[in-house]
Structure formats: C-alpha cells, structure tokens
Amino acid sequence: MKHGINVIAPFSEPTGYGNLSCEVAYGLSLLGHDTRTIDAFWSVIRENEYNLVSKTPDMDYIDLYIMSPFDMKMRANASVMTMFEVSKAPLKWVKFVNKFAKVLTTSDFCKRGFLEAGIESQCYNVGNIVDLNLWKRCEKSKSHLFTFLYSGSFLKRKGLDTTLRAFKKFHDTNPNSRLVLKINPLDNPVPEDEIREAILKLKEGVEIIYGVSKRETLVELYSSADVILYLPRCDTIPKIVLEAGACRTPAITAAHSGITELANDQNSFLVKKFTEVPSEEVYEGVGSWYVADVDSVVEQMQYAFDNPSEIKSRGNKIRQDVEPFSLENTTKRISEVLFNDS
After folding, report:
1. Are 269 and 250 in contact (CB under 8 A)?
2. Whole-angstrom Cα distance, residue 74 to residue 78?
3. Do 7 and 21 contact (CB within 8 A), yes or no?
4. Share of the chain above pLDDT 90, in %
5. Any idea what DSSP says for residue 308?
6. How many Å apart are CA 24 and CA 35, to the nearest integer?
7. What is the pLDDT of residues 41-78, one digit of tens each?
8. Residue 17: what pLDDT?
9. DSSP one-letter string for 244-281
C-alpha cells in the first residue's frame, strides 16, 4: 500500500543526518511511497543524486524525523529515527523521544541503550544504510606508499587522537606508509586541542584533505586506500565502514559498541583491547566511551601491512556483509515498522 511520508532532518546536521534523510526518503520512494524531505540539508555529497518531488500533495502524510529534533514541531503520528555514540542513551533524548509512537535506531547497540535508559516508546533496530548503486569500487591507481584512510571530523569521539598516536608509532618503523585524513569541516571545523597537538607531532606521513567532497571523490579515496583506520570511542554501525566495505576496502576498527554488528575477524582487522572511560558528551546520563589501546592498533596495522592477501580477502568479505544494509533492504525494514506492512 502506498503512503505519504515527510522525512524531516535538522538543517544543522548537513552531512550525517542530512545524508541519511535523503537516503531514507529515496529508498522509501523506491518502495512506492510518496516521499518528500522537509528542512533536510541536502549536502554537497548528495546534491542532485536524489530528486524527490511530491506527486500527490493532497495525500495524508506521516512524519519521520531523522535524529532528535528538539526544536521542531511534531504531529501525533510522527516517528523518529535516531542514534547515539555512547553506551547509554542520553536522558534528554529518552525524555524527548518518548513523545513519539515509534523510535527507529540503526543498531541493536542503540536499541539496548534506549531500553536500558527507560524508553517507553516502541523501539526498533532497522540498521544503517549504504546505497550499493553509488558506493562501489572504482579502478583507481594506488600510491606507492601503503595508505591508511580516516574519514570524519576533528573529534576525539571519532578516535582521531588514538588514530594519530598509533600511526606515529607505526610510521616510525614503516616510513613507506601514509595516513590520509579526509576531514569534513562542516561537522567540526577546528581540531580539539589534543588532536591538534597530535597532528603537530607528526612531521611527515600525514596528508589532510580538508573540505566537503562529492561522493565520487570519496569513492576514489576508499578505493585507493589499502585499509580504513577508524577507532571511535563508541559508534552505531559506522557509515565509513559500510561505505568503504561497499568499495571492498576493509577497516582496522574497534571491537565494541555497534561496530561488531558489522565488523568481525573475517571482514575487518579488529582491535579488541580498549579501556572504558567516562563519556565526555554534554548530555547527562550517557554512560561510557571506549578508548582503543594504541599498541593493539599498531599490531593490526602491522599485520595488514605485512599481509596484502588478507586485505583482499577481508575486502571481498566485507562487501558481502554490507548487503543486509543496502538502501533497499534497510528502507524495506523502515517501511515495515512505520506501516506494519511486513
């Protein structure tokens, strides 16, 4: 049955939730729903890729909010799709999302975090999204240097400080390597102090690509990298691991939170030693973060460096394992939750 859906995202979230809102809206439109985006920032990465136009303006639309829209008006039939990067859902978020009939999350980790925090609304894990028609390996010549790629923002929450320390230690004994930092300034334009200091200590081996890149550029970066280096303090099923995996590039990543709902020893290089620390998020009641052990990260970096056949094998496996999170599969689960049309 066809339904009308408003997909609404905060204008202040241009790349993360802004992109997600476009993917969700597009995927739902492929299922035959009349879908339109409202207030969503269509970032440069998604510009002109998804052309969504309401075909029947008089249809009765329901609202699906992407993230926690604290400053937006809601209707009674609204649902919300959101996620968080701490071990327990923030109390402020729980109080707010309890106003919605249904709460959709992107991992079992997030769902458990909401349930443990006392959410009263119905809560569902629908999984994260990767559009496999857009994210696929391209033939791009590789550098003569072994390349680690980090794509994200200047944030400790994303583990960039750990990434930089690990790379410095690795590079001291493996100078024929480099770390490419693809930084999106829209998320956090200025490096946090610890990250700035870590960058300054790296006199060579680091290349920073600063700015919002089109999807084609990111596909080339994923395809030309040997491995992704992504060590967040906490995460749902990470977009970078999904997108790079779709391009057959495996990740060195941490075995905690929602990451292991995708990454495993067959498709990734897992760092299994980390320290639990209090979260530094501004919200109350958010639980813990997990800091990856630098020496354990370096061990995985060295193993990947010494075993190119394992990179290829795990790259092929991660490409298979992202299939359940394809745009078609995830938006089908979203539609089933919203309309009970399984």
Report:
1. yes
2. 7
3. yes
4. 49
5. H
6. 9
7. 544 334 444 555 444 555 677 888 887 555 556 666 78
8. 66
9. HHHTT--EEEESSGGGGGT--TTTSEEE--EEEEE---
DSSP annotation string for 145-157: SEEEEEEE-S-GG
The domains of the chain are located at 4-129+326-339, 146-323
- Sign of the four-CA dihedral 109, 130, 319, 240: negative
Strand partners, 7: 37, 64
CB atoms within 10 A of CB 2: 11
Which architecture, in CATH terms, is 146-323? 3-Layer(aba) Sandwich (3.40)
pLDDT of residue 9: 73
Q: Side-chain half-sphere of 24: how many Cα atoms within 13 Å? A: 33
DSSP assignment of 163-221: HHHHHHHHHHH--SEEEEEEE-TTT-SS--HHHHHHHHH--SSEEEEES---HHHHHHH
C-alpha to C-alpha distance for 333 and 342, rounded to whole angstroms: 8
Q: Which residue in this structure is represented by tokens 């795990």?
A: 314
Helix (H, G, I), strand (E, B) or coil at 223: helix
**Can you list the residues of the chain whose pLDDT is less than 50?**
12, 14, 42-49, 53-55, 342
Q: Counting runs of H as helices and runs of E as strands, what totals does the chain give?
A: 10, 14
**For the chain, how big is the Rg over CA atoms in Å?**
20
Q: Which CATH architecture describes the domain 4-129+326-339? A: 3-Layer(aba) Sandwich (3.40)
Whether 243 contacts 135, CB under 8 Å = yes
Give the pLDDT confidence score for residue 301 in this predicted structure: 98
Cα separation, 320 vs 18, in Å, equals 26
